[in-house]
Design brief:
The chain contains four helices and three strands, in the order H-E-H-H-E-E-H. With about 100 residues, the protein is mainly alpha-helical.
Length: about 100
């Protein structure tokens, strides 16, 4: 934390400074809320963010068969939900990053 500096001001300037501090505090709160929302979007256990094999293959521009081969070779992570295979956004992005040259 920075050090505190006290300045003698008139009432109007003091009110303006308080408003600026309130804006900064509310801005920090908004940033924290956005960070929480982003973390819930990339949470691999959030079922609403799990993609089917068809959706994942489409995003990666490969066939479902090739996606199956990648999964069996351990090149892409996945989640088994009941009898269904699902891929989290984090898993997909991680695979894309490894493929990047």
């Amino acid at each position: 934390m920075g050090k505190n500096v006290y300045i003698l001001t008139d009432a109007n300037t003091a009110n303006l400074a308080e408003l600026q501090l309130l804006k900064m505090a509310s801005f920090e709160l908004i940033i924290r809320e956005l960070m929480v929302k982003v973390s819930t979007l990339t949470n691999p256990l959030d079922l609403s963010q799990l993609f089917t094999e068809k959706e994942t293959a489409s995003r990666l521009s490969i066939s479902i068969k090739n996606l199956y081969i990648l999964r069996k070779e351990g090149k892409i992570h996945y989640h088994q939900v009941g009898i269904n295979i699902r891929y989290s956004l984090g898993d997909i992005v991680e695979y894309e990053e490894r493929c990047r040259k």
